[in-house]
Design a protein that fits this description.
There is one protein chain. 79% of the residues lie in helices and 6% in strands. By secondary structure, the protein is mainly alpha-helical. It folds into two domains: 167 residues, Helix Hairpins; 63 residues, no CATH class. Strand 3 and strand 4 form a beta hairpin. Helix 1 packs antiparallel against helix 2. The longest helix has 82 residues.
Length: 234
């Protein structure tokens, strides 16, 4: 195999590692945001349940005030009832008292419903709080793992970049430029084997003469279809 091809394959290996490490590093912030969003969702769910419980409690207290207001009115009407001597006034007051008593009964029924809702919301709040605590603990572990991953990838990237710098020293500038452009435009596969006259990059057929040149390994050969640098796979 041509010496330049061997050097390019080593360089390409390092460049592929560099590309992979950079791609993985780019996922770290996205993963961190996903973790934070998950915790935020659990926190929001907990807050919503607590807010619903507070809203129900406010409604229940308002009903208590309404019921007490009617009880106060009943007490006043009963005082008036004892003081009146007219039958029609007595009956009218009795009807008002009865109406207030019915309203109090309806209010108390509604209060019972709200109390049941409060109990349900309290159970949901306990469950949501437990989920939030678990999510926070999990997020702490995941963030720690991501920090370790980011550090490890960063170190590997530094090493790969240093190796690439060393490998690229002494390269023919024109060949290095061709390779770098191909690597960028051909999805990280600038130097590929040719098998049975087919380029393993674009999978298109090349002429027998060109494949023979690649097999001889005396000069740099490019695929006639995609322009990648070819080498003969033994």
């Amino acid at each position: 195999m041509l010496k330049e091809i061997e050097q390019l394959l080593l360089l390409q290996e390092r460049d592929q590692k560099i590309k992979m490490y950079k791609a993985e590093l780019e996922t770290v912030p996205l993963e961190q945001r996903r973790i934070d969003q998950f915790v935020a969702a659990k926190s929001n769910a907990f807050d919503q349940v607590k807010q619903r419980a507070r809203d129900v409690e406010v409604q229940r207290k308002m009903l208590e005030l309404d019921a007490q207001s009617r009880r106060d009115s009943i007490a006043k009407y009963k005082t008036q009832q004892y003081q009146t001597r007219k039958n029609d006034e007595f009956q009218a007051i009795s009807q008002e008292i009865h109406r207030f008593e019915q309203e109090i009964e309806q209010i108390e029924d509604h209060e019972i419903e709200l109390m049941e809702q409060t109990e349900q919301f309290q159970k949901e709040a306990l469950f949501a709080e437990a989920e939030l605590i678990a999510a926070k603990r999990q997020s702490e572990l995941q963030h720690t793992d991501l920090e370790k991953k980011e550090f490890t990838l960063g170190e590997r990237l530094k090493q790969a970049l240093a190796e690439r710098e060393q490998l690229s020293q002494g390269f023919d500038p024109d060949l290095l430029f061709q390779y770098t452009r191909l690597f960028a435009t051909k999805e990280g596969n600038a130097v590929v084997p040719v098998e049975h006259e087919f380029c393993m990059g674009c999978h298109m057929k090349n002429t027998t003469a060109l494949v023979h040149r690649a097999k001889l390994g005396r000069d740099i050969v490019h695929c006639q279809q995609c322009g990648r640098i070819l080498y003969y796979a033994n």
